[in-house]
Amino acid sequence: MIEDGExxxxxxxxxxxxxxxxxxxxxxxxxxxxxxxxxxxxxxxxGSLAFREVASHLVSAASGWDVVPLTVLREGPHxxxxxxxxxxxxxxxxxxxxxxxxxxxxGFLHVFDGVDQHDRPISLVHEDSVALRRxxxxxxxxxxxxxxxxxVLEMTGGHRHGVDHGVTFHAEPKLRTVLWGWAGExxxxxxxxxxxxxxxxxxxxxxxxxEHLVTEREVEGLRRRAERLRAAAVFPQPRGxxxxxxxxxx
Length: 250
What we know:
Blueprint: E1 7-12, E2 21-25, E3 28-34, H1 49-63, E4 71-76, E5 79-85, E6 96-100, E7 108-115, E8 121-127, H2 130-142, E9 152-154, E10 160-162, H3 189-202, H4 205-210, H5 216-232
Antiparallel strand pairs: 1-2, 2-3, 3-5, 4-5, 6-8, 7-8, 9-10
């Protein structure tokens, strides 16, 4: 439906580093990011972010976890771009948040400490949930360089959607995320199964689909990351040669 129907825009989402619009396709609410509105980045090819958003959805679909909402590449009022099914989060939930230093709530994991705009000591924490663990695994697979707290959508019922995957699939290690709470911990059986599903799909239809969206080297990078993660069977830990946290973290 969102691939073929008429895309009507209602307004622009502000602030956003790239042009982002909210609209609808035949009554279904969507987000539209035209390639023409992408801001050039030094380490990603110009005009490639929309393709990477779609590629991340394909990997999410192959995992079976429904982390990334349905995302397609299509024409719109401002040219070719990505169109993604809108997901309305529950305003009463916070999967990633800031708390006073040393006050990590029950069911949450500590990530790092800092100070707020008033120089008060604070901590960034995130929930310890199956849905968020799966998102963290997916971020490793797609090499997500920008998992901010605001890119996690808390859905009623406990599901978690991840959005804004334009800076993914780089052939070099680029993982930057606020979801470091499980660093070094063993992967669960269902997480290993999800990686296996992605590996099997990369060898078939997923790999064929990705070749139209990212480079051959980047598809190979996905396969290698999945194989390494499957063999290690633990969540990775931050590397010292690349910033581990996106800035700003929200």
